[in-house]
Design a protein that fits this description.
- Residues 6-118 form the Acyl-CoA dehydrogenase/oxidase N-terminal domain.
- Residues 122-217 form the Acyl-CoA oxidase/dehydrogenase middle domain.
- This protein has 379 residues and is an alpha+beta fold.
- The chain has helices at residues 7-24, 28-33, 39-47, 66-79, 81-101, 104-116, 231-267, 279-307, 313-338, 349-358, 366-378; strands at residues 121-124, 140-143, 147-158, 165-171, 181-187, 193-198, 209-220, 224-225, 269-270, 273-274.
- A hairpin with a 2-residue loop joins strand 9 (269-270) and strand 10.
- Helix 5 (81-101) packs antiparallel against helix 6 and helix 9 runs antiparallel to helix 10.
- The protein starts with 6 loop residues before the first helix and ends with a helix.
- 53% of the residues are buried.
- Bound molecules: acetoacetyl-coenzyme A (CAA) and flavin-adenine dinucleotide (FAD).
- The site of acetoacetyl-coenzyme A has 24 residues, from helix 5, helix 7 and helix 11.
């Protein structure tokens, strides 16, 4: 593994940092408080190429590697984790899944719009009774010849109301269990598709999370992704890469909180000196920086595994498990370094603390990452 970033990777990192600092920072508190979807900001992210970073230029993407994607995700997440989850779902679940497993027609139809930000996508696996236990899909897709009849409910869907295209996982042949599951491209305007109310969340409040209801939605056969019964493998393969994106999001939340704590510790005085002069604060900063560097190495290792066509299910799960723990711990300590000021919105760290929690839950909880890692170890 080469620890030196290339000029291109450094340029992506710098562009993402500039964008986050100039375009995202100013309104982030208001968007969080009012659960306001970052419509304008996402449009600009599309224009700048942040929504289809790894997609081939043939389909309108940036043709970049996963390392560049991790670097950009870190920078955006330092400032606004709502924007970065929208970015992550669009890049690593929707675009990647479509480019890797979609047919030529599906790719030509959807990828240019998804990479430019003209539309955004959603990935729909979770259900009211099938979260971690994802094989237990209750949503059904009955094979009716030239179409499938889709019925059921999906839960917690990121980009739930703002997306135009949805990759939906559903059970076609229950007797085949997970091998009877399919993945479909579902369009928002298909009759029988209803978006439920928006969830009122603890964190990532700028992103819109909804349940989705499907009642006798006719999905044309050509909208199935891959062979009959490929849907569960599609979901698992796609999530393996998605977890690298969420690991990078967690890394960004941690480094954002750390940078704020470092700066504040040099400004705030107590007992006649800057609080950074107290060893208790210095030790907090040392722990934060060490954990963040370790998390970054795991993220880059997983990204490098993916870029060099090695198996990345384990390294991606390790990166997500560790980086999300570091995000939570670092954000809590950053609030502590800020004292009472950390408890109010103007200082940003309370938001980062609330945002950090979701990284231990979605795209597989920390317990699920441990299952994935240990199964790989015991293979
Ligand atoms: N690649 C390809 N196939 C895979 C795979 C991978 N990485 N991991 C598992 N599979 C296949 C297995 O080979 C098996 O297929 P076969 O029987 O044909 O060989 C099939 O999947 C079932 O695997 P398991 O027997 O291991 O299934 P399980 O039920 O014991 O556990 C699990 C699987 C890992 C726990 C899985 O259910 C899981 O990942 N759960 C978490 C779900 C999740 O991450 N949801 C995220 C939703 S999206 C989201 O959250 C987005 C967002 O927030 C922004
Ligand atoms: P459960 O599976 O019910 O788990 C409850 C607890 O039990 C957890 O602590 C879990 O780790 C633990 N547990 C369960 N099984 C085991 C086990 N075998 N061993 C040990 N512990 C176990 N899903 C999508 O499909 N698309 C999205 O875009 C999406 N976005 C989301 C956005 C938000 C804000 C949220 C909150 C969720 C989102 N999700 C999405 C759903 C998310 O992936 C699930 O919430 C997650 O996978 C956990 O499922 P669950 O909520 O049903 O919890």
């Amino acid at each position: 593994m080469d620890f030196q970033l290339t000029e291109e990777q450094l340029a992506v990192q710098s562009a993402a940092r500039d964008f986050a600092q100039t375009e995202l920072w100013a309104g982030v508190i208001e968007r969080d408080e009012h659960q306001k979807f970052p419509t304008e900001q996402i449009k600009k992210m599309g224009e700048l190429g942040f929504l289809g970073m790894m997609v081939s230029p043939e389909y309108g993407g940036g043709g970049m590697d996963t390392v560049s994607y991790v670097l950009a995700m870190e920078e955006i997440s330092k400032v606004d984790a709502s924007c970065s989850v929208i970015m992550s779902v669009n890049n690593s679940l929707v675009c990647w899944g479509l480019e890797k497993y979609g047919n030529e027609e599906q790719k030509r139809k959807w990828l240019p719009k998804l990479t430019s930000g003209e539309i955004i996508g959603a990935f729909c696996l979770s259900e009211p009774e099938a979260g971690s236990d994802a094989t237990m899909q209750r949503t059904t897709a009955e094979d009716k010849g030239d179409y499938y009849l889709l019925n059921g409910t999906k839960n917690w869907i990121t980009n739930g109301s703002s997306a135009s295209v949805y990759l939906v996982i559903a059970q076609t042949n229950p007797e085949l269990k997970h091998r009877g599951i399919n993945a479909f491209i579902v369009e928002k305007d298909m009759p029988g598709f209803v978006v439920g109310p928006k969830e009122n969340k603890l964190g990532i409040r700028g992103s819109d999370t909804h349940s989705l209801m499907f009642t006798d939605v006719k999905v044309p056969k050509e909208n199935r992704i891959g062979e009959d019964g490929f849907g569960f493998k599609f979901a698992m393969q796609t999530l393996a890469g998605g977890r690298i994106g969420i690991a990078a999001q967690a890394l960004g939340i941690a480094s954002g909180a750390f940078e704020l704590a470092l700066k504040y510790s040099k400004e705030r005085k107590a007992f006649g000196v800057e609080i950074a002069k107290h060893q208790a604060i210095q030790f907090k900063l040392a722990d934060m920086a060490t954990n963040i560097d370790a998390a970054r190495l795991l993220c880059l290792q997983a990204a490098n595994d993916k870029d060099s066509h090695q198996d990345y299910a384990k390294s991606g799960a390790m990166a997500k498990l560790f980086a999300s723990k570091v995000a939570m711990e670092t954000a809590v300590e950053a609030v502590q370094v800020h004292g009472g000021y950390g408890f109010v919105k103007e200082f940003h760290v309370e938001r980062l603390m609330r945002d950090a929690k979701i990284t231990q839950i979605y795209e597989g909880t920390s317990e699920i990452q441990k299952i994935v890692i240990s199964r790989e170890l015991l293979k």
